[in-house]
């Protein structure tokens, strides 16, 4: 057998055989499983998920589900192909034994693997006071069960809903409340809604949108305490400015927490921002050495990006989860020369208060903003974000057809401010500070986080590998 034929045979065997385990039975896990089979993997495939449900779509939970258009259990993701997997649903992974290549489960089982994909995603940040967290009427939104409970609470026509945090999900829920005719107060510790991902200039526009829609928006304040009645149902909220609000329903939208606790002791580079990996989705160990058989994808992954000074990027967007799943799957069944990078240009969208908001790139990487098209007053515009003379992100309000144009500029590292598109010029095209807030504030964390090289980021600890 020739050398080339021998290599081809090795590659075919590597692609087809072995045991692959995916921890995380959501969008990323499902699309990775499908991609593995598309790539020709015919070996054993196990998918582990802590929820009892098959993978479902989460974005509709804060929109169509809360409005009552869709039952909470009806957002199941479509199967693009058969995956022939051993589904372990309703049981959480509790540990990773890298020496023996086993995933430890909450029921005491040990699942062996040859290659592992970590896709455990994120969860909602819990209410800060454990005693208050037990009050009836206090919710977070992440799972279909969460959405079902909030949907039921809204149907009961509460006198007042309090939403704590005005990021994308908090703002979308406030919009739903107004669509349903519910009185709603939004408490946001930043100066305006959406300051974390989009900055203060856009935040001021978002604040006006909310107030014009009848939202009682309170900015620059925090909720210090919740008070319940004799039956243990939330009835009041104490704000940091001394205000005492009467409320029947409270939804805490305080950002997300990466699901990495089960990796404690595995000596991977896991922490506050997720699990670090290279651009090929291969996990790093605690000292930055790349692993050969452990991959990461989805919300829990953080990887360097060439467009953003090779800083490590954590992305909580649907498209990044799907593309990351496909890249990880491809690289899991290909040897070095056949592997490819996962370098997504982040894209996001949000529907709130009758406005279709779409963005591309990493707006929060920029420090300047310029309106490039349309009319801010009419809530129909495009804006570009820049840093060091280069466009790094773009945003549209009811102007999404131009997003692809700005995406190409970002990919080409075009100058900032960008060249005029020659259409629909704004009345004010002056470059100004984007006014981003402190990224360390829990509700000021954007959906795309650049976590490297920043002296204000969370600290790192060097730990020598155990012998």
Task: Outline the structure in words.
By secondary structure, the chain is of the alpha/beta class. The chain has 3 domains: 197 residues, 3-Layer(bba) Sandwich (FAD/NAD(P)-binding domain), CATH 3.50.50; 123 residues, 3-Layer(bba) Sandwich (FAD/NAD(P)-binding domain), CATH 3.50.50; 104 residues, Enolase-like, domain 1 (2-Layer Sandwich). Helix content is 21%, strand content 29%. It has 8 helices and 30 strands. A 6-stranded mixed beta sheet has the order 3-2-1-7-21-20, with helices on one face. Strands 24-25-28-27-26-29 form a 6-stranded antiparallel beta sheet. A 5-stranded parallel beta sheet has the order 9-16-10-11-12, with helices on one face. A hairpin with a 2-residue loop joins strand 24 and strand 25. Helix 2 runs parallel beside helix 7. Pfam families: Pyr_redox_2, Reductase_C. Keywords: FAD, Flavoprotein, Oxidoreductase. Its cofactor is FAD. This is Pyridine nucleotide-disulfide oxidoreductase. One of its GO terms (cellular component) is cytoplasm.
In the CATH hierarchy, the third-tier topology of the largest domain is known as FAD/NAD(P)-binding domain
DSSP summary: helix tally: 8
CATH class of the largest domain: Alpha Beta
According to DSSP, the number of beta strands is 30
Q: How much is the radius of gyration in Å? A: 23 Å
Strand content: 25-35%
Output the structural class.
alpha/beta
| Major β-sheet strand ordering | 3-2-1-7-21-20
Q: Name the overall outline.
A: globular
Q: Summarize the main sheet.
A: 6 strands, mixed
Question: What are the segments in which pLDDT stays under 50 over at least 5 consecutive residues?
Answer: 452-467
Helix share of residues?
10-25%
Return the domain count.
Answer: 3
Span between termini: 42 Å
Judging by the overall fold, what is the CATH architecture of the largest domain? 3-Layer(bba) Sandwich
The chain-level mean pLDDT equals 90
Let me know the CATH homologous superfamily of the largest domain: FAD/NAD(P)-binding domain
């Amino acid at each position: 057998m020739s050398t080339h034929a021998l290599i081809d045979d090795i590659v075919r065997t590597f692609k087809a055989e072995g045991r692959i385990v995916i921890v995380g039975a959501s969008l990323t896990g499902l699309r990775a499983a499908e991609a593995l089979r598309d790539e020709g993997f015919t070996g054993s495939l196990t998918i582990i998920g802590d929820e009892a449900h098959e993978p479902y779509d989460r974005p509709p939970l804060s929109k169509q589900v809360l409005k009552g258009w869709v039952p909470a259990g009806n957002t199941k993701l479509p199967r693009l192909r058969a995956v022939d997997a051993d589904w372990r649903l309703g049981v959480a992974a509790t540990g990773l034994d890298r020496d023996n290549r086993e995933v430890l489960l909450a029921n005491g089982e040990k699942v062996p693997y040859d290659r592992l994909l970590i896709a455990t995603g994120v969860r909602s940040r819990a209410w800060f006071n454990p005693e208050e967290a037990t009050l009836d009427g206090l919710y977070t939104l992440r799972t279909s069960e969460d959405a079902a409970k909030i949907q039921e609470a809204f149907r009961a026509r509460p006198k007042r809903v309090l939403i704590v945090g005005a990021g994308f999900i908090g703002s979308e829920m406030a919009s739903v409340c107004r669509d349903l005719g519910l009185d709603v107060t939004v408490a946001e510790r930043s100066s305006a809604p959406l300051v974390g991902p989009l900055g203060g200039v856009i935040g001021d526009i978002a604040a006006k949108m909310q107030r014009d829609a009848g939202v009682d928006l309170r900015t620059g304040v925090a909720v210090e305490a919740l008070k319940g009645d004799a039956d243990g149902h939330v009835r009041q909220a104490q704000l940091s400015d001394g205000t005492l609000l009467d409320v029947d329903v409270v939804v805490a939208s305080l950002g997300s927490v990466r699901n990495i606790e089960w990796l404690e002791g595995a000596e991977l580079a896991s922490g506050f921002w997720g699990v670090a990996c290279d651009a090929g989705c291969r996990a790093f160990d605690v000292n930055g050495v790349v692993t050969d058989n452990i991959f990461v994808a989805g919300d829990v992954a953080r990887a360097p990006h060439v467009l953003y000074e090779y800083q490590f990027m954590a992305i909580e967007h649907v498209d990044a989860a799907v593309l990351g799943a496909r890249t990880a799957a491809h690289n899991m069944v290909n040897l070095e020369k056949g592997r490819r990078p996962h370098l997504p240009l982040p894209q996001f969208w949000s529907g709130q208060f009758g406005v279709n908001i779409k963005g591309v790139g990493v707006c929060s990487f920029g420090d300047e903003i310029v309106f490039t098209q349309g009319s801010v007053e009419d809530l129909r515009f495009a804006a570009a974000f820049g840093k060091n003379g280069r466009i790094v992100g773009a945003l549209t309000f009811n102007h999404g057809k131009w997003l692809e144009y700005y995406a190409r500029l970002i990919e080409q590292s075009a100058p900032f401010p960008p060249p005029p598109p020659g259409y629909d010029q704004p009345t004010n095209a002056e470059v100004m500070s984007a006014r981003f807030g402190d990224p360390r504030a829990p509700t000021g964390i954007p959906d795309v986080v650049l976590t490297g090289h920043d002296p204000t980021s969370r600290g790192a600890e060097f730990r020598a590998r155990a012998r």
